[in-house]
# Entry
Amino acid sequence: MKAHSCVVFSILMGTLNCSCTTVHDYPRCYLFRAPEVSDIAKANDETVKLMNALKIKKFAVAKDVVTVESRSDLQFKLEGIWPAYGCVNLRHPPPETGDINDKWVVARCQDFLDEVLKRNSLSKEVPRTNIAGKYVEFTCH
# Structure
């Protein structure tokens, strides 16, 4: 009877653990020019490092989006820091040390990704139709 209880408990805990996971897409924008294969590979490497640091095990990396399956608390944490990772700077030297217009473009990109993530989260704070009109100054390659 004791072994049976352990099996039932294990199944129950596995089911509960799975039910707490969600899948979210995190978009990436490449700024200042269209990315080359090496740029995409470098961005992918940085994303893998981030996921490992957050202990996120289930994710898929593509050119324009990273899909993550994880617990809601890790999704919330990733959502808070993603805009800095999702806006891939392709200007050399980096915009952070360059021209003020470059800094502005990076900041606008991060605002854009922040709003996209808020739109896709459970809160639904930003209506879908308002985002594109607010960010007409730049495009994501």
